[in-house]
Amino acid sequence: MTSPVIDIQGVTKRFGSTDVLCGVDWQIQKGSVVGLVGTNGAGKSTLIKCLLGLLKPTAGHIRILGEDPWTLSAAAKERLGYVPQTVQLYPWMTVDQITRYVGAFYQNWDAAWVSTLIDRWQLPRNHRVGPLSQGQLQKLALVLAIGHRPDLLVLDEPVASLDPVARREFLRSLLELTGDNQHTVLFSTHITSDLERVASHVAMLREGRIAMFDELDVMKDRVKRLRIAATQDLPTSFAVRGAIRTQVEGRNALVAVADLDDSLVGELQSAWQADVAVEDLNLEDIFLELHHE
Amino acid sequence: MTSPAWQFEIHPSSGVPIYRQLMDQVRALIASGRLSPGDLLPSVRQLAEDLEVNMMTVSKAYGRLEADGVLERDRGVGMRVKAASVNGSVSQRQKELLPEAERLANRAWQLQLTDEQTLSVVKSALKERPKS
Which of A30, A174, A268, B99 is the most buried (most CB within 10 A)? Predict the structure, then answer.
């Protein structure tokens, strides 16, 4: 197996007396399209900034594209694309000017594709960047970040200010970029429905750690909710192995499990003379189950 | 004949993974006769583009259907619907039908139908199938 594109080991990041990241271990393989989800303030942006070398971790080790991000070489930077949460571009340049300006930094700039993207996203070529709306700015920043077809693309909340049409165009462009399984994408979001179309993998960041990381399909196949109706009252100590959340009320229980195996349902049925219904969960459901207090 | 990609309908935000939704739909299209043995399915790239999903998702669905003996790979052409083959003894095949029969029996009981009434529904459903 080749070495991972992103390799994070035991990373913590402390601001003052607050631990935002407390021991992140995470490896991302080449060709994956990874969605990073977490609540507001979970540390998504902090983690992204650490792995790009924009923040120095308090402890731990990070390698991206085989290098330490804090001392990233120009060659590695040329293989990297990044769109921050808040886009800042030179306001006095026009869309065309800034496209040529940024393109000049990259040897493998794909000017034809960039031109297609500008048309597809209806960006006004001769308008200055300054008066553009948040959504248009975000679209422009995305074009500038993928114009050199980066081996690793990192996006912090890329779709937050995009309308539904632009979001679908964005997802289409991502699929175009990653169709050859050679390009790796990491993007943070809290809009789980966008992820479900394009992501191969999903990571859930919770309380400063990666609480769950798997292929999206595998996650949906394994994480299930069980509705249990027993013939008599269940004890308050009622526990199911692998439970993420358990709710007991009289004869009924609602249990979310991280990994439903074939034997579990049968065991519950015979142990409690219970009727057990298995419910499929989408990404939002899984996210909510994981964050249920 | 190649089946058009718009025959497929996916719900990305369902709890059922997209590759499973595709597998179920191919099976349903075959069962309803809208896809016949020998029919060509859209290419992985085509279907992924039309449905705006990851190509790996489509190739996973095709791969599993091939392993299940539903589709076969026609080298250099694409995936075709495989002629339905029957494996196993009569009793084995009857056993395979049992879960569906149990569901039917439960539903008939809920509807308070007698055994004869239920069987006559099954018989009329069987008549609509082409005889092999």
Answer: A174
